[in-house]
Amino acid sequence: MLTLNMDSPPGEDTVLRASPEGRAVVSEDQTFSQLTVWLLAVRDHRDREAFGDMFDFLAPRLKGFVIRCGARPALAEEIVQDVMLTIWRKAALFDPHKAQASAWIYQIARNRHIDIIRKERRPVPDELAEDPGTEPDASQVLALEQETLHLKQAIARLQPDQREMIEKAYIGDLTHQEISARTGLPLGTVKSRIRLGLGRLRKELKGLR
Hints:
The chain is an all-alpha fold. It has a single domain, classed as Orthogonal Bundle (Rna Polymerase Sigma Factor, Chain: A). Helices cover 66% and strands 2% of the residues. The protein is built from nine helices and two strands, in the order ββααααααααα. It has helices spanning 31-45, 48-68, 73-90, 101-119, 126-129, 138-156, 160-171, 176-183, 187-207, and strands at residues 3-4, 16-17. A two-stranded antiparallel ribbon has the order 1-2. It is elongated, with a radius of gyration of 18 Å. The model is unreliable at 11-32 and 131-142 (pLDDT under 50).
């Protein structure tokens, strides 16, 4: 069973443990916007609670995806472990302006599965061989529209000072240092407002139905 232990930061020897019932309470149509907030919290604040929630939500879905692509259950669990550790280590590479969180994560899973198949000198299944550069289908377009709408609604409900920092960081694409220089606010204040804003966004998006 896939598990997550966050007593220490994830590393080579980390054992992942997910609670049996899972902490994520996100309806299926909220997957994309919630994943974005979790991933931003991990990327910018190394937020262990957000990582744990993301693990609880993603692990069974990633495992199902990998099994559908031909992996044995035991191998699927191994791949999911690798993928989640990669997400923790490489979260800094995620850019919400360039890719949906779901697409970024599933591409990591796809690449890891292909690597293993090629090492075993087996043919790559059609489900994995599909060109990732192909045009998105209607469901992907709808999911992106939902993510954009939900995030805009949640951002609009933030406190003005938090909303300003979030918009400058994730819409204006400014670094924390650049925001500090432009606003005259101490760097610590900028980081604190962004952290609090992200925390509020997580709660707002979980509450959407």
